[in-house]
């Protein structure tokens, strides 16, 4: 999924196919940090797309991201900050 989502043209397609709710489930699944890190990496790549940003906010991912900032692994925290920054910059541009 990561490699497919790197291409800008696929980001919107992935969002419309339902990737964001699936990634949110991966973030909240207690099976291990490896899946969380992978989900955060993909969300970080997607967060450069306006459609993905809207989907991330819509499915209430922000509280999960905030929690991961407190409890996550260093690499996951880095991706979490990148996602939140991207969301913030989008909001700031609209003001």
UniProtKB/TrEMBL annotation:
InterPro entries: ARM-like, ARM-type_fold, Armadillo. The keyword Repeat applies. ARM repeats lie at residues 18-61. The keyword Chaperone does not apply. Keywords: Repeat, Ubl conjugation pathway. PANTHER family: U BOX DOMAIN-CONTAINING, U-BOX DOMAIN-CONTAINING PROTEIN 10. This is Uncharacterized protein.
């Amino acid at each position: 999924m990561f490699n497919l989502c790197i291409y800008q043209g696929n980001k919107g397609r992935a969002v419309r196919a339902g990737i964001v709710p699936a990634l949110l489930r991966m973030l909240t699944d207690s099976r291990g940090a490896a899946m969380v890190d992978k989900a955060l990496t993909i969300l970080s790549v997607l967060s450069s797309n306006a459609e993905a940003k809207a989907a991330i906010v819509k499915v209430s991912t922000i509280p999960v991201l905030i929690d991961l900032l407190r409890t996550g692994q260093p690499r996951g925290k880095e991706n979490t900050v990148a996602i939140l920054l991207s969301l913030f910059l989008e909001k700031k541009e609209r003001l």
